[in-house]
Design brief:
Chain A: It comes from Nocardioides ganghwensis. The complex is a heterodimer of chains A (about 425) and B (about 100). By secondary structure, chain A is an alpha+beta fold. Chain A has a domain of about 110 residues. Chain A is about 20% helix and about 30% strand. In chain A, strands 4, 9, 10, 11, 12, 13, 14, 15 and 16 form a nine-stranded mixed β-sheet that branches. The N terminus of chain A is likely disordered. Chain B has three helices and three strands; from the N terminus they run H-H-H-E-E-E. The N and C termini of chain B lie far apart (about 60 Å). The chains are: A alpha+beta (about 425), B alpha+beta (about 100).
Chain lengths: ~425, ~100
């Protein structure tokens, strides 16, 4: 077993410091010495206990650690000890103080991405070897010399390390069953090639990046509403026509509210909901029980793939404001009952008093199918916490049109029969 | 069963010509069948209902109304451009 691997006994060659440009002038060095320290994140979320890049079992020290889905706990594959990281909700105080939020508060893992290099090089804490990790898809790697599992625990400038992770709860077999049931109820008009190539066992467990936001906002709306005052019928030839009289009002509404754990996609590829994509499928399986998210420990990702965040808080501010406006509109809707002819909103305003942004990896079982003739990537996605399943199944257009024509012909036949019978 | 329903319908409209719009039933039924099946398979209309599924704590709604005019006679049964239920359709943004 490799958990007790020790550094090689031979002393390693001392490394020469890398050349970092010509020496600074005295003025520059003095200015650098007086400079204010770089501001830290608003909420510090680095898991210091993992700072050496090795997630060791607290009982035996092995690094052979992974998530046990059925218990949502980390398990040491060497001594079978199980444990879990602390919930960020209590650890970082995320559930409180939303009423008092001021400005934009960004947790360390949601800070602006300053480097788009996915590949990072880690030095193995066991033997000192350099190991490369492609953080676009994985946050762990085996040291090829001493077999230690290396984990990306420290904050990276490329957005790959979030503040928290919500572990998988649904097992792979449960996800396969849900995907099979979803597709089985959509067999008749499914594309024949999809049915032929359907292998739900190819489902993949993926941690997708999201930004989870608490916010305090005030929304205001202005528009016109109409109240019916009279309704009457007039005879015009053989027909009778209904007329209405109504009062027109200028209506305004405002509401102050807070939202807790509003969840927004943190990857550009998932945030595009145009008609050429099926990203709305993955969006539909929200929400997750984000209150149960735990502190970052990349051992939760062993055996799963991950997609790194590539959108910053500034990119997503407009999305937040758009969703807050929608939430405000739904909040004022019950107060519009008096306007029985309806309300037409004409202008709206949102004032975000404060927001708190936390980056999280959320677990999804994903079955994907690429439809070649339409170049469309279809998903069947399962929320690996709640089990909510949603999907897009490619259709057989000839079958669908045949079904539509059959129904249309049948209805037309009935209509013709009635017309003939009453002529 | 269908014949009974048809017979009842014919009896109900007897003495009066059946409206010609009945001829639209076939095309309308075909389009409705196509779209309902397409949506059941592709779920293009689905998305996360964050207005309902997020923890929201709201203060009481404030508001006023002010009468601006009276419509004395119209055939419209409701206001033009009613968007009170379309929460995600954005209107002019005030700064």
């Amino acid at each position: 077993m490799t958990q007790d691997a020790t550094p090689p006994s031979e002393p390693r060659e001392p490394r020469q410091p890398p050349f970092d440009g010509p020496p600074l002038s005295l003025e520059e060095e003095l200015a650098a010495a007086r400079a204010e320290p770089e501001p830290g994140p608003d909420i510090e979320t680095v898991n210091e206990s993992l700072s050496d890049g090795l997630n060791r079992c607290p009982k035996c020290g092995s690094t052979d650690v992974r998530l046990r889905g059925s218990t949502e706990m980390l398990i040491c594959l060497f001594c079978r000890h199980q444990w879990q990281e602390a919930r960020v909700e209590e650890e970082l105080g995320l559930g409180v103080g939303i009423d008092d939020l001021e400005g934009t508060v960004v947790a360390g893992g949601a800070e602006a991405i300053t480097d788009d290099d996915d590949v990072i090089t880690m030095t193995c804490g066991g033997c000192g070897a350099d190991v490369v990790v492609d953080t676009a898809h994985a946050m762990n790697a085996r040291c090829h010399w001493c077999r230690h599992t290396l984990n990306v625990n420290q904050r990276t400038p490329n957005g790959a390390v979030p503040d928290a992770v919500l572990p998988f709860r649904l097992t792979r077999d449960e996800a396969v069953e849900k995907i099979r049931a979803f597709a089985s109820s959509r067999r008749l008009f499914a594309h024949p090639r999809f049915k032929k190539e359907f292998v739900p066992e190819n489902v993949l467990g993926v941690y997708l990046p999201y930004l989870v936001i608490d916010a305090r906002a005030e929304a205001a709306y202005v528009g016109q509403g109409e109240v019916q005052t009279r309704r009457w019928t007039e005879k015009q030839g053989d027909n009778s026509v209904t007329y209405y009289a109504a009062d027109v009002y200028r209506v305004d509404r405002s509401v102050a509210f807070t939202v807790d754990d509003l969840t927004i996609e943190g990857a550009q590829d998932r945030a595009d909901f145009g008609s050429g994509t099926t990203n709305n499928i993955v969006n539909t399986i929200l929400p997750f029980d984000t209150k149960n998210a735990v502190r970052w420990n990349s051992s939760y990702l062993v055996g799963y793939t991950s997609e790194k965040r590539d959108l910053d808080v500034t990119d997503l501010q407009p999305v937040l404001e758009d969703q807050l406006l929608s939430i405000g509109r739904s909040q004022v809707h019950p107060t519009l009952g008096e306007f029985d002819r309806g309300v037409r909103w004409e202008a709206e305003k949102i004032d975000v008093g404060g927001s708190r942004w936390v980056a999280m990896y959320l677990p999804v079982w994903l079955y994907s199918y690429y439809q070649e003739n339409t170049r469309m990537l279809h998903y069947i996605a399962v929320n690996a916490r709640t089990g909510e399943t949603m999907g897009s199944v490619p259709v057989s257009q000839p079958r669908l049109i045949a079904a539509a024509l059959t129904v249309g012909t049948f209805l037309e036949g009935i209509a013709g029969y009635i017309l003939v019978a009453t002529a | 069963m269908i014949e009974v329903v048809l017979h009842q319908f014919v009896l109900a409209t007897s003495g009066d010509d059946a409206p010609l719009w009945l001829l639209a039933a076939g095309p309308a039924g075909a389009v409705a069948t196509y779209w309902s099946l397409y949506r059941y398979y592709r779920n293009t209309d689905k998305s996360h209902a964050y207005e309902r599924d997020t923890l929201i704590t709201a203060q009481p709604v404030q508001g006023h109304r002010e009468k601006v005019r009276h419509i004395s006679r119209t055939r419209d049964s409701d206001i033009d451009g009613d968007n009170s239920g379309d929460h995600r359709v954005r209107v002019q943004r005030l700064e």
